[in-house]
Amino acid sequence: MDLKTIKNLLNLISDSDVNEVEIEEGDFKIKVKKQPDTITRGDSSPVYMGNPAGAEYRIPAGPAPQAPQPPSEAATSSQSPNPGAGGESSADAKLITVRSPIVGTFYRSPSPESDSFINIGDTVAKGDVLCIIEAMKIMNEIESEYAGKVVKALVDDAQPVEYDQPLFLIDPS
Q: Which of 78, 98, 111, 128 could form a disulfide with 168 if both were Cys (CB 3.0 to 4.6 A apart)?
């Protein structure tokens, strides 16, 4: 099943009264729920998993609109250096922007009790896990495509992220 078909399916479900759909096509399986699951903590208060009840979630038809960014972020391209871009210092121009490959919820650690995968100032190698993005109850580890020092985290923990949204700035030198 291709991404366009999945987007069309999600839009169709969001516009209907259907709460849950599960589709199997060969070894591919997708399950979509509109209402959140709840679990109970030890203190008997509910913990919501997924979007709050009534929240609407749509996948954009084209590239996601970008929030305004400071000049140093706007001048960096997706996972590649951009030297000499308009009036910046050479230090800002060589930063690499790590962008979200999917829509989902950003997590800096594997669980709430665990330490972050990386912290500001850490040196990362190619293939190191930077974060997790949860999409449709699937935890997707986002690995670094470059070695370098993590200069800045651009997203807070447990925040929703869009496709191609900047997540981290890495100094490859």
A: 98
Q: What is the pLDDT along the chain (173 residues), one digit of tens a residue?
A: 677 777 777 777 777 777 777 787 777 777 777 765 555 555 555 555 554 444 444 444 455 555 555 444 433 334 444 433 344 455 567 899 999 999 999 999 999 899 999 999 999 999 999 999 999 999 999 999 999 999 999 999 999 999 999 999 999 98
In words, the CATH class of domain 71-171 is mainly beta
Which pTM does this prediction carry?
Answer: 0.49
Question: Would you put residue 72 in left (φ > 0), alpha (ψ -120 to 50) or beta?
Answer: alpha
Q: Would you give the end-to-end CA distance of the chain in angstroms? A: 40
Q: Where in the chain is the domain with CATH 2.40.50.100?
A: 71-171
> In the 3-class helix/strand/coil scheme, how is 32-74 assigned residue by residue?
EECCCEEEECCCCCEEEECCCCCCCCCCCCCCCCCCCCCHHHH
Cβ–Cβ under 8 Å, residues 150 and 168? yes
Decide: 94 and 81 in contact? Cβ < 8 Å.
Answer: yes
